[in-house]
Write a structure and sequence with these properties.
single chain; 134 residues; 3 helices; 13% strand
Length: 134
């Protein structure tokens, strides 16, 4: 009788732990869904008002062509009026991408037009700085 009682007690404790874990996982999923829905909502607002969001790509970020294999959200340029003449690529847009973007779109005093980021050049500048420090 003692062994049966102990097994039943252990099964009840195990069942309670499983229920607690399942509730915790459900709460985590709901939190994640809420965060993603907020990012999607605000990202859509930012994307709709952004002058750089063109043909599904962000024309603000001009990346070296070799970034295509290294960054998963990068693809060949599809922007019809892109100012860059060499082979390059852009970030693929999504509402999440736009929600995380730090570009200030509605600055009356200092417009951001014409700014281009080139990771290849940025990387070379960093390399030169690190060589000077040595």
């Amino acid at each position: 009788m003692d062994v049966r009682f102990r097994m039943i007690t252990e099964l009840e404790a195990l069942s309670k732990r499983i229920d607690k874990i399942e509730k915790q996982k459900a709460d985590e999923v709901l939190t994640l869904v809420e965060i993603l829905s907020n990012a999607t909502f605000f990202g859509e607002i930012k994307k709709a008002g952004c002058e750089y969001a063109k043909e599904g790509q962000c024309s603000f970020f001009i990346l070296a062509d070799k970034a295509k294999g290294k960054i998963p959200i990068v693809s060949d340029c599809r922007v019809s009026q892109c100012s860059e003449s060499s082979l390059h690529c852009h970030l693929e847009l999504s509402n999440i991408t736009c929600a995380l973007c730090e570009i200030k779109h509605h600055q009356a005093t200092a417009p951001v037009s014409g700014v281009q980021l080139k990771p290849k050049i940025i990387g070379e500048k960093r390399l030169k700085r690190s060589r000077k420090r040595r």
